[in-house]
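To make this tangible, we now present a fold written out as tokens:
***
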Amino acid sequence: MRTFNEFQQICEAYDADVMNKSQIKKTGQRGEIGRDRRKSEPEKRRMKAAGGGKMVPAKSYKDRKDIGQQRQASTRQEQPQKERGSAGLSLRDQQRKAAMERRAARKGGSSAPSTAKDKEKAASKLLTKKAPAKKPVAGYKPQKASGYTRMERQKLQRTGDRILKDIRAGKNKPASHYEK
């Protein structure tokens, strides 16, 4: 067991100024604070059509302009507008407000709960979990990406429409007519 004096000597070994002020911040290549959380190319799941039936990983997002800078608390959190304690109502004002609420509730069918039990019910109703979203049908499988770009898909669609239109019109054109 160490004595108080021994502990005191240990504490003096560290410079108080350095202990309080030094914060080692690891910065990445782009200047961000902390580690790079972006996924590598093989880890990326988002894909886009490259054309010709091929899919490639989608582009990475652009870096933010304010990367590596500390954001002030005033920009992130709502700051008080008035001095502390100014929001509280006086006793007389509280009574007047409660009386007005009761009158309003009597007049037009109370929209706000008045008794403690009603308030408790309303609160529990708000806190109850919502029903989960509908589950998909058992045999449902989403359509796989074709790999064609929007322009290529439209071109294929219009070619098919044109063939159907010719068939309906009674134009007996050979299949070679539609090939390109």
In short: Residues 148-180 form one domain. Residues 150-169 form the longest helix (20 residues). The helical segments are 4-12, 16-21, 73-76, 91-107, 116-127, 150-169.
